[in-house]
Specification:
Blueprint lengths: L1 E7 L6 E4 L5 E6 L4 H16 L6 E8 L2 E6 L4 E6 L2 E5 L13 E3 L17 E4 L5 E3 L8 E6 L5 H16 L5 E7 L11 H11 L5 E3 L4 H6 L3 E2 L1 E5 L5 E5 L15 H11 L12 E4 L14
Parallel strand pairs: 1-3, 11-12, 12-13
Antiparallel strand pairs: 1-7, 2-3, 4-5, 5-6, 6-7, 8-17, 9-10, 9-13, 11-15, 14-17, 15-16
């Protein structure tokens, strides 16, 4: 796995881009002064890898063009060449599970299969503190379950679209539940209080539920954020995959077209297309010892 970091001019758009070969290209807009550029690099990498900023350190060099970046918690080292950093990341331990680098459901084994029944849950909404379970949507023709969080750039990129999806289907035969399963001890930004702030800021009209034990994420074989599931009236899985083509750093519009197409097919009594693009995002941050076996397959 390669991670490429580019410190760009202000005219370039910053962001984190998932390449077709699985590598990450991280573009950071920064001024010419090294100190501020270093801070920008640290902030961007810490946010993406889901670690505190103090876990990322510039250990050599003082300018944009010469750095060594270390992410202490993951043991990742990035050695700069002029304007380009190429790091070889050890594919071992929890990196393999998609805990730090971008994770995807593509080619994964052991995931919840199409046609499988929706696993049950009883989780508390971070805003109202009300407990929700599948029976609360028993009268809905469609149920959408979305695994999201706050810190992840992939969720940040589409969060407005998630909110719009909720508003567009609020008066239709569609139930929507968002679930956050990340360990808040590892990612304080994904604590219930911070999640409540996001739900209120974005105007979510669906519950944002906190999966404290991470048992629900494991039951759904959730792998990343966002990871989206659509179930029919019998609560059989008919779609599992991406929200749309929007990614951090690309210019694809946030439309939710993939999820909307699945919802509309179910509402119309039509089969959902089997051409489903895999989810991609930040790996679920599992509590020590709770990482499911499917994440390593």
């Amino acid at each position: 796995m390669q991670v490429t970091v580019r410190v760009t001019a202000r005219s370039r758009r910053p962001g984190i881009v998932q390449q077709g070969d699985g590598s990450l290209h991280v573009r950071v807009t920064a001024p010419a002064e090294g100190g501020r550029a270093n801070a920008a690099v640290i902030a961007a990498l810490a946010r993406h890898f889901g670690v505190p900023k103090q876990a990322v350190a510039i250990v050599r060099g003082h300018t944009n063009r010469q750095k060594v970046v270390e992410i202490a918690r993951e043991g990742v080292t990035m050695r700069n060449k002029p304007w380009r950093v190429v790091a070889i990341v050890a594919m071992a331990g929890w990196l393999v599970a998609g805990q730090a680098l971008a994770a995807t459901t593509k080619d994964k084994e052991g995931l919840l299969a199409l046609g499988a029944k929706a696993p049950g849950f009883a989780l508390q909404d971070v805003v109202t503190l009300r407990e929700w379970s599948l029976k609360d949507w028993a009268d809905k023709e469609v149920l959408v379950v979305m695994f999201i969080c706050r810190h992840c750039p992939y969720v940040q990129r589409v969060k407005g679209g998630l909110a719009q999806l909720g508003r567009d289907y609020a008066d239709k035969d569609v139930g929507i539940a968002a679930i956050s399963s990340n360990d808040p001890k590892a990612i304080p930004e994904d604590s219930p209080g911070k999640l409540k702030g996001m739900a209120l800021e974005e105007g979510f009209v669906f519950p944002l539920l906190f999966d404290e034990t991470q048992k629900v994420a494991a039951a759904y074989t959730a792998l990343c954020t966002p990871d989206i599931f659509v179930f029919d009236a019998q609560r059989r899985l008919v779609y599992r995959g991406q929200f749309d083509d929007a990614r951090p750093g690309n210019r694809s519009p946030v439309t939710g077209q993939d999820v909307r197409a699945a919802i509309e097919a179910v509402l119309a009594g039509q089969p959902v297309s089997s051409n489903q693009r895999p989810s991609v995002g930040c790996g679920i941050k599992w509590q020590p010892g709770r990482e499911p076996a499917y994440t390593r397959r």
